[in-house]
Amino acid sequence: MSAIKSDTKVLFITGVSTGFGRALAEAALAAGHKVVGTLRKEAGRAAFEALKPGFAFAKLLDVTDTAAIAPVIAEVENEIGAIDVLVNNAGYGHEGLVEESTIEELRRQFEVNVFGPVAVIQAVLPYMRKRRAGHILNITSMGGIITLPGISFYHGSKFALEGISESLGKEVKSFGIHVTAIEPGGFRTDWAGRSMVRAERSIPDYDEVFEPLRQRRLERSGKQPGDPKKAAQVMLQLIASENPPTHLLLGRDAISLVREKLGLLKTEFDAWEQVSASTDFE
């Protein structure tokens, strides 16, 4: 295990009303860190700041309003303190078959899950780069590595954030900035419940492949094996590490399913290796 540093930090976490964002905010505050959390509704501001006055700071921000992001980051840097850790947590799931979903739904999924996080990263990076220090955590999903039918738009957004995270990490490594993609499996958050957007069904041909998965997802909501509070403790350990990983799976289901995917990829690549190699110039 890598060395651990014990200093307190300023965390900027998007989406702290529920789920991983709330669990991490509460754990970080309990550990003595300062937390700036974003909310989309004024009603939640006072409750969040009451968690630990003087340490918990709420900012109203919708990450899809990209023009508003840089001023908020500047305000935090000037009035609260240097942002040591950025946690891109805000996001949602879109459940729907590709043929039954709209391009507008796809754009919305990417606006929230990809464009918003990247805009926040772009606003924070100049400060971290100047200080030659910082850690960016992008909460993606095991669904940024594995796929299931019926949530293609969600997978697409998480695959995109995975790729951006990994490449970004290589761009900023020499500046002392770490980037980690957090890849949770099934956790007891609102992802499959209140936060899930579900497209209307219209094509019976897909019933056999899709309906059992939709039903299983609804039945498992609130009964997933993952504990958000334990995930929060792991993330606190991660931001204290001097050599954090580029990818971090959370949950036994994530470990199992991702390993299965990697095995299938290797098998397929090996089976088609001669064909793959045949396309180079002699």
UniProtKB/TrEMBL annotation:
User: A Pfam family for this UniProt protein?
Assistant: adh_short
Q: Does this UniProt record's set of keywords contain Oxidoreductase?
A: yes
Query: Mind telling me which InterPro entries this protein's record contains?
Result: NAD(P)-bd_dom_sf (IPR036291), SDR_fam (IPR002347), SDR_oxidoreductase (IPR051911)
Which UniProt keywords are present, listed alphabetically?
Oxidoreductase
Recorded GO molecular functions are: oxidoreductase activity
Presence of the UniProt keyword Oxidoreductase in the record: yes
Q: Which PANTHER family match?
A: SHORT CHAIN DEHYDROGENASE, SHORT-CHAIN DEHYDROGENASE_REDUCTASE FAMILY PROTEIN
NCBIfam families cross-referenced by the UniProt entry: PRK06180.1
Family of the protein in this entry = Belongs to the short-chain dehydrogenases/reductases (SDR) family.
Which protein are we looking at? NAD(P)-dependent dehydrogenase (Short-subunit alcohol dehydrogenase family)
Q: Which organism is it from?
A: Rhizobium paranaense
